[in-house]
Structures are given as C-alpha cells and as structure tokens.
Amino acid sequence: MRLALGLTIVALGCASADSAGTTGAGSVDAAPDLAVAAPDVIAVAPRDTAPPPDATRSATACNAMATPPSGLQTIMVNGKSRSYIIRPPKPYDPTHPYAVVFAFHGYQQTGAFMDTNSGPPYNFKTVLGGVATMLYPTALPDKSGNNSWARDIDDDLAFFDAMLAATRSQVCVDAGHVLAFGHSNGAVFANVIGCRRGNVVRGFAPVEGGLGTTTGCTAPAPAFLVHGDLDMLVSIGTGLKERDYWVKANGCNPQNPTPIAPAPCVQYQGCKPSPVVWCEHQETAYNGTGHGWPPWATMGMWTFFSGP
C-alpha cells in the first residue's frame, strides 16, 4: 500500500540533552518538554517502500476480540507492573489484519503524553488512526526518578514482547507490519528494537535520538532515520553516527543516496536486505531547539513502511 496525501500539521519538540551523554543503552537524557506550533502543508509522493518482510515477520494473527480494548492497559513483566495505552483503528474490522505501531516517548514523558499528542504534533491519529493499532508504552523511572528507556534494555525488551503478545490476542494483527517509532530518548529505544528485534519488526523510525546497543542484533530491519542539523539538545553528530552505523550494518552503499519524498529525505542504495532512509532537516521551531518531531515525519514513515 502506498499513500499520497496533503496534510496541515503542527509540530512539537520533546527535549533531550545531548550533553548528558549516553548511558547503558546509549540513552539521551532529557530536559523538560517544549512545545511550539509550526504549521506547514505537506505533500508526500509515492515512492519505493521497504522490501517484503521475512517469514518471521509475515504471520498474521486474527485470534482477536470482536471489540478490542481501548485505553490504559497494565501487564506484569519480570515481576513489575508495566502500563501502556492501546488505540485500535477506527473503524475496526475483527477479520482484517492491521499494522501495529509502538510509539516510544521521550525522557521524563509517558505513554499518556504521546496519546494526548497523537493528533498534532505527532499526527499518529491523522495518518494511522484507520490503518494501525497504536501502542503508547510508559518507561519506568531510572535512578534519578525520571521515566527512561535506558534504565534496563532487557527488561524493556521483555515489555515490548509482552505488549505485542497481548495485542495479538486482542486485535487482528498484521505481523508483517509491526513498527517501532520513537522520539528523543524513545528514539534510542527504537534503535534497540531495530537491533534486538529486527526479525520481529517491519522497521523502526527514530527521531532526534541516537544509537542504543549494537550488540546481539538479529536480522537487519528497514530504518527511517530523522535528525535535525539545528538540534541543540541531541547534536547532529549523534544522528550521523546512528546513520553511519545502520548504513554499514544493512550493507548499503554510503555514497550518493537518492532523494525521495518527503524532502529532505534520501534513500541509500544497494542495501541488503533492508533499506535505510536518512532525513537530515533544518527545522528551526520547537522553542528554538530544533529537537521536535517534524510535521512530515509520520506520513513519510508510513509511506515507506506500508508497502506489501
């Protein structure tokens, strides 16, 4: 499936401090959230999408409820109570398989924050509301008492697995289109998912983050990477390291990538088996930090990942 839509979208920044460095999973510690309206009109043209998923990703699960839950869910993982918000597509057909999209919040934030902002600025509701089940997990506090996806990689991966298993029992799932999106500190964990669960997800899309662990990676997954030249909280150098790692890991030619929609994205060539898209932008909004979620990002991600 390919999409070509025009949207009027507002963007928001979730702040992180690059100067805080990386710990454990390559975390990016964050400052308080910032919000600035930045209206724009985006038109996304059709283009080449990610390749068909492998057999691990292709099974469809429709052992689902006629009326799936919507709202706050709790689940026990490794003896801890974990929470997330589920939003099934509207309208919902229990016989139709839907994509599953995880949206990982930034440092100090919550799944409720992402759900509340699932219209503008993130535009999950606008772009994905009728085609995907959205999952908005909440990280547990780190030693400083702030919610962080860098607290314990293995524990959070077990949480990811448990959420996906629970969702399969509740919603008709297209297992070939399980996606991991993340912003800032959540982008670091999206990179972890791309590494450790590359044989499970269709792809991953980190925005204004950095690499997590690069050990124990499974099959390379398609990557849609977004970072701003003007990000004052997570430097472009951090984003370039992320890009260079996945270009090499996915066997891409690092030279002369091809421009694709939405601008300013480019796609690297010769990748085997999974493609890499890099979107280096010059957004100046988000209270002047350049650290927000660009208005074109979600539509660009979905257009890239939603192919057959």
Q: Explain this structure to me?
A:
This protein has 308 residues and is of the alpha/beta class. It has a single domain (6-46, 56-305), classed as Rossmann fold, CATH 3.40.50. Helices cover 22% and strands 25% of the residues. It contains seven helices and 13 strands. The chain has helices spanning 55-58, 111-116, 124-128, 153-170, 185-196, 236-249, 297-305; strands at 6-9, 40-43, 60-61, 71-77, 80-87, 98-104, 132-137, 173-183, 203-207, 223-228, 253-259, 265-269, 276-281. Strands 3, 4, 5, 6, 7, 8, 9, 10, 11, 12 and 13 form an eleven-stranded mixed beta sheet that branches. It has a two-stranded antiparallel ribbon with strand order 1-2. It is globular. The termini are close together. Mean pLDDT is 83; it is low at 1-56.
Keywords, separated by commas or semicolons:
alpha/beta; Rossmann fold; eleven-stranded mixed beta sheet; two-stranded antiparallel ribbon; 13 strands; globular
Termini separation: 6 Å
SSE-based structural type: alpha/beta
Q: What count of helical segments does DSSP give? A: 7
Low confidence ranges: 1-56
Overall outline: globular
Average pLDDT confidence is 83
CATH-defined superfamily: Alpha/Beta hydrolase fold, catalytic domain
SSE sequence, one letter per element? EEHEEEEHHEHEHEEHEEEH
Q: Give the helix proportion (percent range).
A: 10-25%
Report the CATH architecture.
3-Layer(aba) Sandwich
Q: Can you identify the CATH class? A: Alpha Beta
Q: Main β-sheet: number of strands, strand sense, barrel status? A: 11 strands, mixed
CATH topology: Rossmann fold
Number of domains: 1
